[in-house]
Every structure is written in C-alpha cells, then in structure tokens.
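Handout for the seminar on molecular recognition.
Each group receives one record of this type.
Step one: identify the two inputs.
Step two: read the structure output and locate the region that could contact flavin mononucleotide.
Step three: write two sentences on what you found, then compare them with the reference statements printed after the record.
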Amino acid sequence: MLSAKENKQGSTCESIMLECIKKRRSIRKYKNEEVSNEVIFKLLDAARHAPFGGPCEIGPQLWEFIIIRNPTIRKALAHENKEREFITTAPVIIACCADTTKDPKYRDYDITVALAVENLMLAATSMGLGTCYVTCYGNHIAHEGERKILRETLKLPAHIRLVSLITLGYPDEVPTPKPLRELENMVHYDHWGRKKCQ
Ligand SMILES: Cc1cc2nc3c(=O)[nH]c(=O)nc-3n(C[C@H](O)[C@H](O)[C@H](O)COP(=O)(O)O)c2cc1C
C-alpha cells in the first residue's frame, strides 16, 4: 500500500507522464536554434532505459545512435525526396540503429530500437523539443535504393541495422489535433470479437 505522500507523488508523476504522451506530435518545422549535446545526451539516456530482449545485462543493449548535424549529410539523408525535405531543416537528426552482433540469436532489432525511440521522443517533448520519426524503409524491396543511400551516407558497417531517423529541434509549428480511433473499437475481451467485459 502506498503512503499518502507516495500516492500524491505518484499521481503527479502519472499526470505529467500522460500529458507528455498526449502532447507529443510529429514536428516537421523547426526553429533555427541549436540543440546542445548536453540536451541530446539526456534524451539518449532516456532511450537507453527502454526494455530490451534478453537478461538485464550490458550484452543485449544493442542500441547505437549517430548524432547528425552536418548539413551535407542531412541533405543526403533526404535524398532529394520532397516528402523528406523537412529533415534538412531540423538542426539535428539522430540515426537510431541496432548492433546485430550483440546477440546472434536475437532478431527483434526494430522493436527494441523503436521502444528506445519512443522514450527519446517523450523525453524530448517533456523538454520542449520536437521530433519526427522518419522511416529507413525496413525490409521493403521497393526501397532498396533508398536504404542503400542512407547506409552509405552514414558509413554503416554491415552488422549495424538502421531502424529510424529522428529529427530533433525546437518546434516552429503546432500540429492540428489528430483524430483518434475510439478506444472501444480497438478493445476486445478474452478473445477476438468479444466486446463486452464480463
Ligand atoms: C514506423 C513509422 C514510420 C514513419 N515514417 C515517417 C516518415 O518517413 N516521414 C514522416 O514525415 N513521418 C513519418 N512517421 C510519423 C507519422 O507520420 C506520424 O507519427 C503519424 O502521422 C501520427 O502523427 P503524430 O506523430 O503527430 O501523432 C512515421 C511514424 C512511424 C511510427
């Protein structure tokens, strides 16, 4: 049982947490303002607290992050694709990767990196920063060319899987509210299709 004090702290923490989760939006317009390494390291510290597959040891902690500020590299990552042009305007891009040699039997690289990325994005929101998850094209055959450009630009060795690019900066836009599917439409009880809680 929590003491009254712990409970009060708990509920404050809960409301801040939920506020942050609901406040986070993809930001595609950034102020011309630098983000310090100190701030970025706080975000990466949040990222490395995410769950990972395997025992609680250093071994399976497969995350690797590349902090990109160089304008030529940011431009190359946009690879002249109009939809990705906005990434050149973010002062920082963080390439989020997995080292596939950490555990040769492990395959869930993308989910492990994605969980860390969500931590990073929520921590950024809590610090007044904006982020956007930018795809690295996963395993799509149709996007092999783009994937190759990204890998070559970042000089990635073969054992490093590139999962996502996260743009980072101080927001210069307020996205319009987004529609959300009704919760009750996504929820089933005990098995698929049972819509009533017994
Ligand atoms: C797997 C994944 C890939 C995404 N890829 C891109 C992308 O390449 N470019 C982009 O602008 N946004 C991308 N997004 C961001 C989504 O467009 C965005 O999260 C979604 O529209 C919901 O909006 P919100 O983030 O503001 O809540 C991606 C998000 C996810 C989860």
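Reference statements: Helices lie at 4-23, 37-47, 71-78, 109-126, 144-153, 183-186. The longest strand covers residues 160-169.
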